[in-house]
Amino acid sequence: MPRFAANLSMLYREVDFLERFAAAAADGFQGVEYLFPYAHAPAQLAAQLQAHGLAQVLFNAPPGQWDAGERGLACIAGREDEFRAGIEQALHYAQQLNCPRIHVMAGIVPGCIDGAHATYVANLRLAAALAAPLGVTLMIEPINGRDMPGYFLQRQAQAHALLAEIGAANVQVQMDLYHCQIGEGDLAMKLRQYLPGGRVGHLQIAGVPGRHEPDVGEIHYPYLFALLDELGYAGWVGCEYLPAGATSAGLGWLRRQPQSVM
Question: Peptide bond preceding 209: is omega within 30 degrees of 0, i.e. cis?
Fold first, then answer.
């Protein structure tokens, strides 16, 4: 079975953020991810990882003014200096947390799609050059337009075309099966299409349509987990869903998986 990482921004919200590391470890998770680490000093987070034997597998670069509705800066012309500063901050955290992946959010298209495209490619090339000497891989994630209207990057084919255009080996696709199901569907065929190329560096899951536990909704995840094994996927699968109740009580879906690895 795949290796599952707890997304601490969404799971264990019944306790304070720094307490979620212990809760995830107690439930058997060996890896964690979350949206943003910047409210805490790197040393605080590193101490939690070390104390509970957890690997930090992913977090997001600064997205701009999140509370004001910004969802990344990569495609926003005129914000290049802020984008670079955010990447440098994220890389500092990645080094301190021994985290090999940073998700770089694209942003909401500001009007001119052509200008957004050119800005996005230039920014990702710059970020990839900064990350490469540190051994960090940057992730780009298609996000469905229902949940995030106007988001620049929405489809798997678009993401893989951008990888070819950016031309950096340390930029990969973060394939969230929740977003992919809502925006495109045909999940098994897309996994068969894209995983063998080696450019999908991280997966995420949630039930559709409610973004709750993966055993609630229209996706039959046991079939997809078996397909990941068949395709030889060795990366992490982030559990980025909103529990319908207490997190631990809703982990039956995971405990039922044969030889589940958390």
Answer: yes
Q: Which of 70, 141, 213, 230 is catalytic?
A: 141
**Rg (the chain; Cα; Å):** 17
pLDDT tens digit string along 167-186? 999 999 999 999 999 999 99
> How is the chain split into domains, by residue range?
3-57+136-256
CA dist 116 and 123 (Å) reads 10
Indicate if 14 belongs to the active site. Answer: no
**Gap between the Cα atoms of 207 and 101, Å rounded:** 24
> What is the sign of the dihedral through the CA atoms of 166, 167, 170 and 176?
positive
CB 77 within 8 A of CB 54: no
Are the CB atoms for 8 and 34 separated by under 8 Å? yes
Quick check: is 80 catalytic? no
First to last CA, the chain: 9
* Closest by CA position to 75, among listed 5, 126, 33, 123: 123
Q: What is the pLDDT of residue 111?
A: 72
Classify domain 3-57+136-256 at the CATH superfamily level.
Divalent-metal-dependent TIM barrel enzymes (3.20.20.150)
- Residue 47 CA to residue 40 CA, distance in Å, equals 11
What letter represents residue 149's amino acid?
Answer: P
Rounded-to-integer distance, Cα 240 and Cα 257, Å: 18
- Looking at residue 2, the DSSP 8-state letter turns out to be P
pTM, 2 dp: 0.95
